[in-house]
Specification:
210 residues, mainly beta, Porin, two-stranded antiparallel sheet
Length: 210
């Protein structure tokens, strides 16, 4: 009789535990069958920036400072020389491009720009322009750190252009950036290594088109 009583008590206890679990009760012991919280998504929308966009088209305007050396070939009494002087100017212009953002970490795209090399003279023929690729990483949902490179021109000569920058999303429709570009022109070189290349530090403001 005692064994029967103990068996009935164990069965009653098991039935009570099962019923509690069916009604939403949680067992106090861990187990692999317990439901785990889903992992965070790799691509998340930002409350401030709105819906996450994979394809981004934009236009913008920039202003900055360009510095370098201007070298000119001259010939005096049969002697050829390449005197150089400082070539520092205020520059400004426009740019536009496309940025592909497949996830919340990586971004890549293409960009073209055109700017007056010297606002003081406002000579449309004296320009700096480039077509470049951009690629970088998002340090946060708003900060994009990137490298850039491609082909650049200054008026009648061209060559490689490279640099880098940082861009900050002000909202889902606008962003601000700062970048430094080095234009390597196929120009004139002196015997001591002087050239007429340009380094440009500039700030810009972009507006999204989509």
């Amino acid at each position: 009789m005692k064994r029967l009583a103990v068996s009935l008590a164990v069965l009653a206890l098991c039935a009570t535990s099962t019923g509690a679990a069916d009604l939403g009760g949680k067992p106090k012991w861990p187990g692999p069958y317990q439901r785990q919280a889903p992992p965070p998504s790799f691509v998340e929308d930002d409350p401030k920036l709105g819906e996450f966009k994979v394809h981004n088209w934009y236009v913008g305007a920039f202003g900055g400072y360009s510095w370098g050396e201007e070298c000119t070939q001259i010939e005096v009494k049969g002697v050829v020389g390449f005197p150089c002087g400082s070539d520092n100017t205020i520059t400004a212009g426009l740019y536009g491009g496309y940025l592909w953002r497949p996830n919340s970490v990586f971004g890549a795209g293409v960009e073209v720009d055109y700017g007056l090399r010297d606002l003081g003279t406002f000579d449309l023929g004296d320009y700096l322009a480039s077509a470049r690729g951009r690629a970088g990483l998002y340090l946060t949902t708003q900060i994009f750190l990137y490298a850039t490179g491609g082909y650049g021109r200054r008026a009648d000569r061209g060559g490689p252009v490279w640099g880098g920058g940082i861009e900050y999303a002000l909202s889902k429709r606008a962003s601000a950036r700062f970048e430094v570009l080095r234009f390597e022109h196929d120009g004139v070189f002196t015997a001591t290594g002087g050239d007429d290349n340009n380094t440009v530090a500039r700030a810009g403001l972009s507006v999204m088109l989509n």
